[in-house]
Amino acid sequence: MSIKTPKLTVVGAGPGDVDLITVKAIKVLKTADVVLYDALVNEELLDYINPEAEQIFVGKRRGCYTYQQDQINELIVARAKSSGHVVRLKGGDPFIFGRGAEEMEYAAGFGIEVAVVPGISSSIAVAAYQNIPLTKRGSAESFWVITGTTKEHKISNDIELAAKSNATIVVLMGMSKLPQIVKLFQAEGKNDLPVAIIQRGTTSQEKLGIGTVDTIESIVAENELKNPAIIVLGEVVKHRQTILDIKQQYANELKG
Question: Could you report the per-residue pLDDT of 222-234, keeping only the tens digit for each?
Answer without folding.
Answer: 999 999 999 999 9
